[in-house]
Amino acid sequence: MASTNKTFKRCGCRNQQGKRLEQNCPRLPERGHGTWYFQCFAPDLFGRSERIRRGGFVSQAAARAAREECLADSAARRCGDGWTVERWLRHWLDTRTRIRPTTRLHYTRDVELVLIPRLGHYRLSELDGPLLRAVFAEIAQTTNAKGNPQSPSALNHLRTTLRAALNLAVREDLIGSNPARHIEIAGYRRPHAQVWTDGRVEQWQLTGEHPAVAVWTAAQLATFLEATVEDSLFAFWWLAALRGLRRGEICGLKWAAVDLDRGLLFVERQRTTAGYTVVEGEPKTAAGRRAVALDKHTVAILRAHRSRQFAHRDKRHDNGQVWIDSGYVFTRKDGEPINPSYATTRFRKLTERAGLPPVRLHDLRHGAASLAHEAGADLKTLQDLLGHSSIVVTADTYTSVLPDSQRRCADATAALVLAAARHTRKRIKEKAAKNRPTGRAEKEAPSEKRPTGKKRSRRSRSRRNPLRYGK
């Protein structure tokens, strides 16, 4: 090992063929020509021997001192100096074995398309707040794949990915703290659902602008359901709009998990998309595995949907066509489960056909929470219905106040204030009536002035009523 830990001198001179001479330059013995380097081997994070080479030192003594400092440093610190951001990000992705396929897809896009091209050549130990803020400012000036400016939401997702990767580096003692926490995204606010009021609908019709997350009113939802009552996926829209199921949970629903006699539906699986690939697995969170109660009308809708599905199956059998008995509640014509992306596309087309203001399919879940909250459901019941692991998410994100609820709240607030005002006026009148003179002489000569006495000083008045002057 002693032969591999060494210092040497080299320069940037080139021969006639243009090849660098490095350590073979005849001028290296000259003072001031070239710079000194050191090379050593030390165990990395995984215990493997890794070569470390540094250069640019003005003297051999400086190179030796730097080598000894590097060897004396901890193994974790050497890795922080030796690992580039590109190498660490790829290592971080390889070790994320328990994340969902969609999450892995988003992480990979952020790492490969943005983070590595912008930060890959830096070392982990070189990352700090000012550097990352400058890089994110440059990213904010670029455009996305559609040619539009980078949105605050996309930049926030990028920051989340980088912060997650550097959190592992902190846990492994490669860096002392996470510099990504110093990144500030200008203009980013967590989206909150806005109700399609009459004013917003008129503005949308004039300008085409609409909220990122929007919720239909009860009347607008009723209009959509009436327009799609004959649609083959009517039960799909009903479950999303009134029971708040996620798209993937409905696509992954099987008849074996539906108990129509007891009025229960069990969320056990979900079908999602990662790019163009359909992935089926566990629900999004542990709280996502839940039982959802079904009202009588929902049970009737599911019974009618099952009857139509069985009739369609028998018709295909009679015509000699293939039917795959997959057991899913919502299927294609051949019995295979539907693609989640197909449900999204069809919902958008049905919304446009009904002439309603645009909402996303996932926004029906927001609307279900808001409608249930307006109907009197408390937040804990909504949390269980939606399958949230935290009641904070239910309160902050999914419950929007509908106009009728706002109006009732405003009326109740105004009534409370007006009642207090009436009570105050009544007390003032009663007190004035008690202090009003009742004698005849006083009534006949109301303009007589009080006998003027010696004017009291402010000090004497303050002694008589100390509270009046703040004492």
Automatic annotation (TrEMBL):
Instruction: Give the superkingdom in one word.
Output: Bacteria
Q: Offer an example of a GO molecular function term for this protein.
A: DNA binding
Identify the Pfam families for this entry: Phage_integrase (PF00589)
Comp. bias intervals (Basic residues): 452-471
Share an example GO biological-process annotation for this protein.
Answer: DNA recombination
Q: Which InterPro entries match?
A: CB (IPR044068), DNA_brk_join_enz (IPR011010), Integrase-like_cat_sf (IPR013762), Integrase_catalytic (IPR002104), Integrase_recombinase_N (IPR010998), Tyrosine_recombinase_XerCD (IPR050090)
Q: Which UniProt keywords apply?
A: DNA recombination, DNA-binding
Ribonucleoprotein: present as a keyword of the record? no
Q: Which PROSITE patterns match?
A: CB, TYR_RECOMBINASE
List the biased-composition ranges (Basic and acidic residues): 439-451
Q: What region holds the Tyr recombinase domain?
A: 211-411
* Residue ranges of every copy of the Core-binding (CB) domain listed in the record: 83-170
Q: What is this protein called?
A: Integrase
Source species, please? Actinoplanes campanulatus
Source species taxonomy = Bacteria, Bacillati, Actinomycetota, Actinomycetes, Micromonosporales
